[in-house]
From TrEMBL:
Native source organism of the sequence: Sesamum angolense
Primary location: membrane
Similarity comment text for this entry: Belongs to the CCC1 family.
The protein's name in its UniProt record: Vacuolar iron transporter
Protein purpose: Vacuolar Fe(2+) uptake transporter.
UniProt keyword list: Coiled coil, Ion transport, Iron, Iron transport, Membrane, Transmembrane, Transmembrane helix, Transport, Vacuole
Cellular compartment(s): Vacuole membrane
Organism taxonomic ancestry: Eukaryota, Viridiplantae, Streptophyta, Embryophyta, Tracheophyta
Residues in coiled coil: 97-124
Key word Transmembrane helix present: yes
Cited Pfam families: VIT1 (PF01988)
Membrane topology recorded in Swiss-Prot or TrEMBL: Multi-pass membrane protein
Amino acid sequence: MAALNDVQIVTIPKDSADQNQCNLSVAPEVEEFDYSKRAQWLRAAVLGANDGLVSIASLMMGVGAVKDDVKVMILTGFAGLFAGACSMAIGEFVSVYSQLDIEVAQMKREKRMVENNEEDVEKEKLPNPFQAALASALAFSLGAIVPLLAAAFIADYKVRLAVVVVATTAALVAFGGVGAVLGRTKVVRSCCRVVVGGWMAMGITFGLTKLLSSRGLEM
């Protein structure tokens, strides 16, 4: 009997039990990443890469339509790379800087005077023209180097043109897929869109250059 008297019965308050049950049943909320934050640099990078790839590949196909000399094709491609990268960087810089001026002016017109910490948040959301320009130039160069490397070591004229088309197509698929994955959009649709556009650009450039050559305009 003494042993039974020594036993202590511990009771859990009802409120505490309910609270513990609620804590177990409610899962912690996971903050979802806002993929729109990637829009600025992703747009500049994808646009620059696709533009460099398609522009230089089309330029090389156009030259290849009338000249079978590999040196002429490569030099033309590099000239297009340098000119295109500079053009993309300057154009993107001017465009984004204009957007920045508009947004800053709008903020001033609305007189959004806030505390220092909130003001820092607003500044982080503003577009960065230097970042956009650098991303465009690098991406353009990255895309442009693909057809140049594909054609650099092939002497046969027809094989060289075919390799440029194949390499450009593969790179278009890769760039389209990477952009879709980073932006969480449909991969197949993105790849098909950039591939068809690249084919059209190369085909039109090749055909029109061939037509001009047949009309008596030669390099």
